Amino acid sequence: MKKFLVIAVALALVLVTFSSAFAGQDLKVKPWVYDPGKTGISEAKWVTGVGLPDGGSSNHSLFLSKMGLTSDNAAGGATVEAGGGTLTELGFDYRNDGHCGAGAPRFNVYTSTGVYYFFGCTYGVHTPVPDHSDWTRVRFGPADAVPSDGVTAFPGFGSVTVTGIEIVFDEGNNVGPGFVYLDNIDVNGVLAGKPGNAK
Predict the structure, then answer these.
(1) How far is Cα 110 from Cα 22, in angstroms, rounded to an integer?
(2) What CA–CA distance (Å, rounded) separates 22 from 143?
(3) Each residue's pLDDT expressed in tens, for the chain with a length of 199 residues
(4) pTM of the model
(5) Could you give the CA distance from residue 33 to residue 155 in angstroms, rounded to a whole number?
(6) Closest CA to 89 of 158, 10, 12, 165
(7) Which terminus in the chain has less CB density within 10 A, N or C?
(8) How far apart are CA 111 and CA 161, in angstroms?
(9) Residues β-bridged to residue 62
């Protein structure tokens, strides 16, 4: 948990301009790499031909990796820009050959109360993606939220103003394969499965 907090605090700097972007824009997922020591072990990018079908037939997927120890100070991830100030639905699909741990991939959901919440991949409801048995769908509920302060329960979807959302992959290949492919990133029922605005 301590490592989550260190990286989450560092990522909060990325969110300085995010709160205004959260209101009124289409859903966008923008990859980034956090690697202050320039280790080169983390990666984050949209790739074609490896994801679920999308509107342009390019079958994009968000690839996140960390080919080093979990304790290494590096992460791959993405900033999620979505319309609206409250959260009503949250989830993603992941390809089954990738890592799905308690801490990565995860959503970091920042709120106006100052408490932020982790939604780790192993939590939530897991179901097979229809017609794609090599993918799993994850949808999170309020009970899946882990508070940054270790105390404050998530108030529930639709009950708190969200100021930012990140997807973070910071568990290394010492605890799993060191990578994951994500698709159909779901925020408030809008799915992002490729770069640019969700369609």
Answers:
(1) 11
(2) 24
(3) 545 444 544 454 344 334 334 444 579 999 999 999 999 999 999 999 999 998 778 999 999 999 999 999 999 999 999 866 889 999 999 999 999 999 999 999 999 999 999 999 999 999 999 999 999 999 999 999 999 999 999 999 999 899 999 999 999 999 999 999 999 999 999 999 999 776 5
(4) 0.88
(5) 30
(6) 158
(7) N
(8) 6
(9) 46, 182
